[in-house]
Amino acid sequence: MSTPTPVVIDTDPGIDDALAIVLALASPELDVRALTTVGGNTGLANTTENALRLLHLCGRDDIPVAAGADVPLVRRDSRADASTHGADGFGGVVLDPAPRAADPRGAVQLLVDVVEASAAPVTLIALGPLTNVAALVAARPDVAARLERLVLMGGGARVLGNMTPAAEFNIWFDPEAAARVVAAGVPITMVGLDVTHQALTAPGDWAGLRASGGRVARAVLGMVDYYTEYHRARLGIDSTAQHDSLAVAVAIRPDLVATRAVHVDVEYVGTLTRGMTVVDLDGVGGLPPTADVALEVDAAAFNALLTSRITELDGSLR
Ligand code: RIB
Ligand code: CA
Questions:
Q1: Above pLDDT 90, what percent of the chain?
Q2: Who's near 274: CB < 8 A, 6+ residues apart?
Q3: Could you count the other beta carbons within 10 Å of the beta carbon of residue 60?
Q4: Domain CATH number, residue 133
């Protein structure tokens, strides 16, 4: 097997973030060097505590966690969507406290230190609002330029919105940040609603994990059960969109999705369209590409990877 890819995960755990982080920890293709946290699904205090507790659950207290931004760059009225992930961000699932606090360096400095210390280029996986990533680009564009790639969960090309008809939550929460990130020149893979809504995880996909009975299984399945209720109430389906896990899976296996290099920009002035990713699929604007946008996905292969890897990790912790 080739050398594992060094990654930092910027995240707002969050139920689908939690499964995505476990997937990353379970995958030998990735070397998770740090987690940085951002406000989004719930406030920064919760997302940071959740990240620490999740790593402790998985036996990875060695991975540093640093807190970043609690609120967006400009807009102050973005609201966490407590109905999706619960007020605590984990759907009421309480994990054991971690035996450590967050790294005092803060998200941007930890990101800088990891990138500068890494012999191989680091891939940044962004699973929440892009406030921390925008802060890195502003503070240290030289370090941002050293990133191998930014794989972000967010936006949509044809499937536009889950927070408004035009906007996906991560982009909607901080559109000014997202606009700066897509214009920064960092190679981007955008894993948006076009593919996360194609790759829904059905209840039966969790059978192996449910049978495993391990401590990670109990925790993540408790979260999935809460998340399923949200999908039943909001969308009338029993399956769940594991948005963030698909972004991590794309970092593991880029061949899981078909992408198109196109110009992407972010609307942050519009009333009805604030937070919309404007994806020029047909090149009508004549502007150069700013992202590789995922449009198709091998849903079966993704769900097999997700559920088998988490099951394997759980087995290894016994
Ligand atoms: O729209 C889905 C995204 O918003 C995911 O990252 C989910 O965790 C929420 O943050
Ligand atoms: Ca997220």
A1: 91
A2: 164, 166, 167, 172, 175, 267, 268
A3: 14
A4: 3.90.245.10
Q: Which residue out of 85, 197, 231, 243 is catalytically annotated?
A: 243
**166-221 pLDDT per residue, tens:** 999 999 999 999 999 999 999 999 999 999 999 999 999 999 999 988 999 999 99
DSSP 45-83: HHHHHHHHHHHHHTT-TTS-EEE--SS-SS-S-----HH
3-state DSSP assignment of residue 12: coil
What predicted TM-score, i.e. pTM, was given to this entire model? Answer: 0.98
Q: Is 243 a catalytic residue?
A: yes
Ion ligand 2: residues, CB < 5 A:
12, 14, 17, 127-128, 244
8-state DSSP, 163: S
- Looking at the structure of the chain, the number of domains it has is 1
CA angle 61, 67, 73 (to 5 degrees): 155
CA 267, CA 108: separation in Å to the nearest integer? 25
Give the mean model confidence (pLDDT) for residues 245-250.
98
206 Cβ partners below 8 Å, 6+ apart? 221, 224, 307
224-245 burial code (b ≥16 CB/10 A, e <16): bbbbbebbeeeeeeebbbbbbb
Domain that holds residue 127: 5-317
Helix (H) or strand (E) holding 308: helix 299-316
- Ligand 1 lining (C-beta closer than 6 Å): 12, 14, 16-17, 40-41, 127-128, 153, 162, 168-170, 243-244
